[in-house]
Predict the structure.
Amino acid sequence: MNKLILIFLLIFFSCQKAKVERNSKVIVIQPLGNFQSDAAQEVLEKIREINPNVVLRKSIDFPLGSYYKPRNRFRADSIIKYLKSQVGTDSVIVGLSSKDISTTKNGHQYWGIMGLGYHPGSACVVSDFRLSDKNKKDQFYKVVLHELGHTEGLPHCKTKTCLMRDAEGGNPIDEEKNFCENCTFFLKSKNWKLQ
Ligand SMILES: [Zn+2]
Ligand SMILES: [Zn+2]
């Protein structure tokens, strides 16, 4: 009899554990084209601090048909559509690009951007092409967090120092310090390990 209870308890606890792990998404880092592998490795290590469930995949080519030659840009919407098909519902994938990426915005069909993500959804892409040379890596990681924030469902934020601030066609990233209190609260509810 006691043995039976023990078995029930074990089953109960293993189910509880599975439930907790399901809540925390796997972040898949996907370098595109000739994106530098040491820079991708750095992103992996930084993300590990907010979510230990992170993996770095081998670089792949930009998806077929995403290149727009007249502007020498890749369509970010085509990229995230393709990336989405490369992961299951338990994951979110972030593409890393050093090529310029674009989307249709403000009446422009090939508007150059720093990143694009589903809101919410399971894919985003970030490009370092438009970032300041001076502190490219720091800015790049901030954009990665911004796009991952969108995939969790966060909209743009009015707080000037918040990572969810809308760039509005410029580059205000150096003014952004961290997620603001509200955005942090939201992301913590999605199991992000933030201070
Ligand atoms: Zn945004
Ligand atoms: Zn905010």
In short: Residues 146, 150, 156, 166 surround zinc ion (ligand 1) (CB under 6 Å). The beta strands are 26-31, 54-56, 67-68, 73-75, 91-97, 101-105, 108-113, 115-117, 123-127.
